[in-house]
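Record type: ASSEMBLY
Status: queued
Input:
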Amino acid sequence: MSNSVPEIEDTKLVFVFGYNAADSHPIVARRIVRAKEKGAKIITVDPRRTEAARISDLWLPITNGSNMALVNAFAHVLIEEDLYDKDYVARYTEGFDAYWDIVKTYSPEKTYKTHGVEPELVRKAMRMYAAAPDAFILYGMGVTQFGQAVDVVKGLSGLALLTGNFGRPNVGIGPVRGQNNVQGTCDVGVLPNIFPGYQPVTDPKVREKFAKAWNVPSLPDKVGYMLTAIPHLVHEGKLKAFYIFGEDPAQTDPDLGGVREALQNLELVIVQDIFMNKTALFADVILPATAWGEHDGVYSSCDRGFQRMRKAVEPKGDVKPDWEIFSLMATAMGYPMQYNNTKEIWDEMRELSPLYLGATYEKMEQQGGVQWPCPEPDHPGTPYLYKGNKFDTPSGKGLLFAAEWRPPLERTDADYPLVLSTVREVGHYSCRTMTGNCPTLKTLADEPGYIQINSVDAAKYGIANEALLWISSRRGRVLTRAQITDRANPGHVYMTYQWWIGACNELTLEHVDPISKTPEYKYCAVKVEAIPDQLRAERYLHEEYAKLKHKLSSPVK
Amino acid sequence: MEKSTLTVCPYCGAGCHINLVTENGKIVRAEGAPGRTNESQLCLKGMYGWEYLNDTKALSPRLKKPLIRNSRQDDFREASWDEAIKFASSRLMAIKEKYGPDAIMATGSARGPGNEANYVMQKLVRAVIGTNNIDHCARI
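Status: finished
Output:
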């Protein structure tokens, strides 16, 4: 995030795009409500009538899969109606001419058929956005989980640049991260192209610095593989071993049939985790680790805040902290590695990363946390980026960027007439090994999970509320339960990805954005079928669930 | 005697501060603490998301011993840490020897382990295995 979570409530306009905070981040959603209470305007772009849409001044019910077309139409209006901040654009941005060249053909009227938002509503939204003294854009997976995702993120940044909404408190653009430590995992270099602190592996000076610190003659200079390429890499014979640390790709990745085939064909699968999960069923070796609550360390919040997490209880069983397991592995592979605690590791990482140099454990204790960049020992950290409107580009100017809209890959047809989009729910989380083992949260929802379906579609397919039904795509078929709701738009259905029986990723497809390589979880073609014998279906569900639980518990004594 | 430990929630990216209250070495409840982003508020996951630590087996069992098997057709068997590390590391080295380091891929974990564990994982992959094939679910 360019700015911080607490700033949301002090902005004058919250612009929510493809982000359902009430379900995915209730505590962030609270800031949106507070902003409204303090008089801010709210605009929401979402195909569903989410809670944010419900309390908005303007709700733009976008047609699924048309983000770029609508964002370009926004830019078109800002420029055509002369609403943009010309002085800011002249001083702090570049690329205006090429940008206008693309967006000039995206008038709201001309693009209406694509995005489905009334042209006057598009214009009204931009007049409101441009008139706000401070505006904060919040976006989520409704932007990033499409085959065209990075272009749209840049497009949203473009709207903030056109209106001068960067470089001070209460403005900017914020992707609120889904998992507690995705920000941190990026921060410490768990990406194929960067070392910790966002230092590129292709830079010889950076490689030399790390090689020296780590006491090795050299480090690899080639950018590594990305996670979503694995099924192909295994199929091509390029990948033979997979060391899976605290992830469950056999539940969370798209097109699970393809994932299972890849796991089966690997020569070696190492799983390091806290619970038995679907991926571990394919492992050759399973290494048990301590869990949150049983170890120390640092997480990074979505707004770049390093914060200390602490051990509260002793772990049960013969388990070890993850970093200790890696040290044992390194040592066994001929590279002696030894750390006594997480602070030693943190200090090594900090000293190699100019962005974090001043973010010590002591400072985190004193301040409650430290937001990076924190380049010096006496630096307090950075609540918002781009102060003075200096951007992380070679020229220091913000790049105005537009791209032509590309439709989603898979289209609906007579066989698969509905669009499936995968979403979040409030009580359960990710692959569900953690929340599913919390009895209180289990009372909120259980297998096979729900499909949100509009009343028009439910009537059309003869589906009753709470009834079990089959949903299938060209890749698979699963059992799920109907939740008839007019928050969902006709022709589109929504499922969450926590469910092991109702596993929506059996249906999703492996089409990815060309840059981020994020899958198009928000768009694939499906059909639904009512089940006449509900009693039998309930019994089948019960048996399948019991079988799956048994399969997962049998390897563990 | 109750004891309170200040920590950060392991669920979404909001980074809420939580006090985990323990009694006789067991967690009894969670309380919102005055963090920068949450100001003592918690959502349902923050309030009750610690319950899995009691190995409830509500869904799947906690892993408590290293498990290995020589072939995928075999059942898993419990192993000592020495044996499991030797098993995993020798197989990784054999694959590196036969196909090169780029035939090996590893993930980080954006969930409970934390930044330090992830730092050590990417160091293991880059400095010891010798590849940049490391990624995590940020793109998933």
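Annotation: Chain B has a mean pLDDT of 96.
Annotation: Residues 81-99 of chain B form the longest helix (19 residues).
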